[in-house]
Design a protein that fits this description.
heterodimer, A: 252 residues, 76% helix, globular, B: 561 residues, two-stranded antiparallel sheet, 22 helices
């Protein structure tokens, strides 16, 4: 029963090849609201299933989770579509929750990590939808130079992507730091893999940013984010920063 | 107010400035720079007060802003480095006011500059591993955005990415080291960890290796990535598409953080065996390769980039021989002169447009410009002066600060490099074209004496300030020692190599026109190798492209899900 539950959980805390189901679903869904709901509840369902088993996580799960995380982080560097990028980064990040479950005995900490990984991806899903509204697609290298045409949206994009790739002081940073630090002495190979995944996220994030905001711009006249929307996004980012320091940061 | 609180204020002031600049840049326009410069000036003044207090009354204290992390140290290293960073940042701020005036994103630039300053100040004052890791990681991220200030330029962002990815690579060993230390000692606080290590250095081990050695190795790798050591250096010369003030700040206050990190972890390094000699080797290779590559560059900023690489190699080498405080003096003096060179590089380019500075043919200068022909002296006499004078000055200068310096291998190595440098200087002077050779040689020797005595006295003062405990200083040197026989063989071998190099140079100069075809081809091949930077950049670029291709093919095979 336990093994079956783990496999079912592997759909939600993605384990390859079950991870393909989530990405196929995420790719088919075009509504930003549904995407946000998916990003919010998907890993929490997985965590609920795993915690219900109430047994130590089997070693094969951790190995498969590390492989899944590394595979999707690596594949993300070759992506150009924002929606796919969100799906891959979500898969890569949520897979690491298996590792977090091994090193953290407190389930609420891992739930917090899952939420920390999901929140900035939810914001990017919203921004991706705004880009699709304006340009017909959220695709890197297609229009470029957003910083010239849409400075407010570019600023918010930068903040959100930094939060996703676990830059300091966002909650994701502390989640990654705690996972690497906790695994280093007892599972050094795991720590190295997680560190490698973190590095690949940075690469994938920079490629996405460079494809969207860098360049001379093509002169397209599209409306930027409203001032009010910019303030709302900024407020959420600031809340994430404060939350990072006070919640996930305090747990280290 | 206690000095510990002042350290926190010094670190946080630029952050306040950044927020103010960002919020008021729309309203104030270009005048927003005044806010930033004012805050930078106040930050520097307060940092100077902290340093003065540390010098006069000594520095030892810490303040914690959080539960388990957020500790700021008030110690000699943090107070000294904070003043240096705040000073360089102030100069860069003032320079940028006019330099960046025509650039888009003026307010954003100053806000980023302020956040970078705050991050560096937090880094040097960090008293726990998490605060240090946050600042260490954030430096790379901020540098990426500062180097990519021109968001229209793909090339600026391409090379900024190289910097970021190398820095991120260097962050990871530090995270691993932090994990090991926390697991072993149950605290993130650096002073507490250092105290535990001092009490029982070999209590913990992993894979049969003592913990201090493992941690020191990881810290060294993090320092190598930050300080552009060989194989992790390719980003440094290519980041010149960024604004000149950023290059100045980067070369003066960011790349040398490797030297700072090794100093911060000195209490770990003293309990290691065999780590510092490897640090020395990496530094030596970097110094040699960086200096060689510098000589082949025809772009002033790229040449300065490789010069920095060479200097960073020398700084790491100093750490490798146990001269930790000398590395700090070196990074400060290098920061000041390299910052000046970068800020003056625009003027140098302007001057080069008027006069290319290429030396004219000897016959032309003698016949047309009526300059005196080169005066030659007996080469044996000059060789004797070249070899004997520097070593006499060096030994005399070091005798001023310590009688038993010959017992320390590190000091001998540094003396050796000083001797080579001095000899090279006199050798170059001898080859110069001048009417009064003795006057030039005397002046060169005088300058060399001033530099050596100044360097020796100042570095000794740094030693006393940063590491007042004599026993600890000896421990650092002891950790850098290798077997006497191995050391003597190495020194002998390097001496032979250098002297052979000089003889070869002399021989080539005498028989320049009669060199064989084979020798010429070999020389050209070597020059091609150096001018293409050992093909390392091409290799890394191809590797990155291959990874991207594999990632895309994987996506296609797996149906993009």
């Amino acid at each position: 029963m336990g093994a079956l539950t783990y496999w079912i959980a592997g759909l939600f805390m993605p384990l390859f090849p079950l991870s393909m189901a989530f990405n196929a679903l995420f790719g088919r869904v075009r509504s930003a609201t549904v995407r946000i709901i998916l990003l919010l509840i998907w890993p929490q369902i997985g965590l609920t299933l795993v915690l219900a088993v109430n047994r130590p996580i089997p070693h094969w799960c951790v190995l498969l989770a590390l492989f899944t995380s590394a595979l999707y982080a690596f594949r993300a560097i070759g992506l150009r579509e924002v929606g796919q990028w969100i799906g891959y980064l979500a898969t890569s990040a949520w897979a690491l929750l298996w590792v977090a479950l091994v090193v953290h005995t407190d389930p609420s900490t891992v739930r917090l990590y899952a939420f920390a990984f999901s929140l900035p991806l939810m914001l990017l899903a919203l921004l991706g939808a705004r880009l699709e509204e304006r340009f017909g697609a959220a695709y890197t290298g297609l229009y470029g130079g957003l910083s010239q045409a849409l400075p407010r949206m570019s600023g918010v994009l930068v903040g959100v992507i930094l939060a996703i790739v676990a830059a300091p002081l966002f909650p994701t940073f502390f989640a990654m730091l705690a996972t690497v630090a906790a695994t280093t002495p007892t599972m050094p190979a795991t720590a190295l893999t997680v560190a490698g995944v973190w590095l690949l996220w940075s690469w994938a994030g920079v490629r996405l940013l460079q494809g969207l905001i860098v360049g001379p711009g093509n002169g397209t006249k599209v409306p930027d984010l409203s001032l009010a929307a910019t303030w709302v996004y900024t407020a959420v980012l600031v809340i994430m920063l404060v939350g990072g320091v006070l919640l996930t940061g305090d747990l280290i | 107010m206690t000095m510990e609180k002042l350290v926190v204020i010094v670190a946080l002031l630029p952050l306040v400035s950044a927020v103010l600049v960002q919020l008021s840049s729309g309203r104030l326009g270009r005048r927003v720079a005044r806010v930033s410069v004012t805050f930078a000036a106040v930050t520097f003044s307060l940092a100077a007060v902290v340093l003065a207090t540390a010098v006069v009354h000594g520095a030892s204290g810490q303040i914690s802003l959080g539960h388990s992390w957020g500790i700021f140290l008030f110690d000699p290293l943090s107070s000294l480095m904070a003043t240096v960073i705040a000073g360089i940042s102030l100069i860069v701020h003032i320079y940028s006011v006019r330099y960046m005036a025509e650039e888009p994103g003026y307010g954003r630039f100053f806000a980023l500059l302020d956040i970078m300053t705050a991050t560096l100040l937090v880094m040097v004052a960090a008293g726990d591993l998490i605060t240090l890791l946050i600042a260490w990681h954030l430096t790379g991220v901020l540098l990426y955005f500062l180097l990519g200030q021109d968001t229209r330029s793909h090339s600026a962002h391409r090379y900024a990415f190289w910097t970021l990815i190398t820095y991120r690579f260097g962050d990871l060993p530090l995270v691993l080291a932090a994990g090991l230390l926390y697991h072993a000692y149950g605290t993130w606080s650096l002073p507490a960890i250092f105290s535990h290590i001092a009490d029982g250095p070999v209590v913990h081990s992993l894979f049969g290796l003592p913990l201090p050695g493992l941690v020191a190795g990881l810290v060294a790798v993090a320092a190598f990535a930050r300080s552009a050591q060989f194989l992790l250096h390719t980003w440094l010369p290519y980041t010149m598409a960024g604004p000149t003030p950023v290059s100045a700040l980067m070369h003066a206050g960011i790349v040398n953080a490797g030297g700072f990190l090794i100093n911060r972890f000195a209490p770990v390094f003293v309990h290691t065996q065999g780590v510092l000699p490897w640090v020395f080797v990496v530094g030596l290779v970097t110094a040699l390769i960086g200096s060689t590559l510098m000589l082949t560059q025809n772009d002033i900023k790229k040449s300065l980039g490789y010069s920095t690489m060479g200097q960073m190699g020398f700084m790491i080498m100093e750490c490798g021989v146990g001269a930790f405080s000398l590395a700090i003096f070196h990074l400060i003096s290098h920061g000041l002169f390299k910052g000046t060179l970068f800020l003056g590089s625009g003027g140098a380019i302007n001057a080069a447009r008027k006069d290319d500075g290429v030396p004219k043919d000897e016959l032309y200068t003698f016949v047309v410009e009526r300059r005196p022909a080169r005066v030659r002296r007996p080469w044996i006499l000059m060789a004797a002066i070249t070899l004997a004078v520097p070593v006499t000055i060096l030994v005399a200068a070091h005798s001023l600060v310590g009688q038993n310096f010959f017992q320390e291998q590190g000091a001998v190595v540094l003396l050796f490099f000083g001797w080579v440098t001095g000899a090279q200087l006199i050798f170059a002077t001898y080859r110069m074209r001048t009417g009064n050779l003795w006057r030039l040689v005397t002046l060169s020797i005088l300058s060399f004496t001033v530099v050596v005595v100044g360097y020796t006295l100042i570095s000794h003062a740094f030693d006393l300030f940063l590491y007042p405990n004599e026993a600890f200083r000896q421990q650092i040197y002891a950790a850098a020692n290798i077997g006497v026989l191995r050391f003597d063989i190495l020194v002998g071998l390097v001496t032979v190599l250098i002297v052979a190099g000089w003889v070869l140079t002399y021989y080539s100069e005498q028989n320049g026109s009669r060199q064989g075809e084979h020798h010429g081809r070999l020389w050209l091949a070597f020059y091609a190798l150096v001018s293409r930077e050992f093909y390392l950049t091409d290799l890394f670029t191809r590797f990155a492209r291959a990874l991207l291709t594999v990632a895309t093919r994987l996506n296609v095979w797996l149906g993009w899900v």
